[in-house]
Design goal:
Blueprint lengths: L6 H13 L4 H28 L6 H5 L4 E4 L4 H12 L14 H7 L8 E4 L4 H8 L5 H6 L2 E2 L14 H12 L4 E5 L4 E4 L4
Parallel strand pairs: 1-2, 1-4, 2-3
Antiparallel strand pairs: 4-5
Helix pairs in contact: 2-8
């Protein structure tokens, strides 16, 4: 499919999106993961945010809402950004807000009363290192960030990156907020359920 920018781009994008299907195993795992996420961390996020003075959105709680943030910070992404920075145009917009994601979410009014599923290929130990970065403090201290390992899923996607990306995609459908890190910066896509 040749996609042109403008309205035609989105028409083609949604055609491709509509044609995507996952096997039953991935769909089952995605749906099961949603239930586990809400059962284990929905109340935790509400209580934590309430203790910090945030107001609860009863409708979001009633309908089982949560957020998803796709954090692209794996080694291959760092390598991509190094090449990106070295081009003649001297681009400087790769990973600009990656390490400040909590501040971005707060500035956009994304409520911390809902759990945040972290869709990433980072291992649990890599995420643990991120928790120690001062610039990531608002993300991990204000938001209830939930990783695959915390949900009992594989903690290291390893060679099954595409499989887990499909599960992440299912979790990203019909969420209250979906944050997607793109090539040019951290772009935020709001999707209201």
């Amino acid at each position: 499919v040749k996609v042109l920018e403008g309205n035609d781009f989105w028409d083609e994008f949604w055609k491709i999106h509509q044609a995507l299907t996952f096997n039953d195993e991935i769909i089952r795992l995605g749906e099961q993961t949603k239930r586990i996420l809400l059962n284990l961390f929905g109340g935790v996020a509400r209580d934590r945010a309430k203790s910090m003075g945030y107001k609860l959105d009863e409708d979001s709680v009633l309908y089982g809402a949560y957020h998803v943030v796709h954090l692209r910070a794996e080694k291959d992404w760092h390598n991509h950004c190094e090449r990106w920075f070295s081009w003649l145009e001297r681009r400087d917009n790769c990973m600009n807000n990656t390490w400040h994601i909590g501040n971005v979410l707060l500035s956009e009014g994304i409520t911390p009363t809902l759990p945040v599923y972290l869709a990433t290929g980072l291992t649990e130990s890599e995420v643990k290192k991120l928790r120690k970065k001062p610039s990531m403090r608002s993300f991990f201290e204000i938001y209830t960030v939930v990783t695959k390992g915390m949900l009992g899923l594989t903690a290291d996607v390893g060679q099954n990156r595409e499989y887990w990306a499909a599960v992440d995609f299912i979790l990203g459908e019909d969420v209250d907020f979906l944050g997607v890190q793109m090539y040019f910066d951290f772009n935020i896509l709001f999707r209201l359920s």
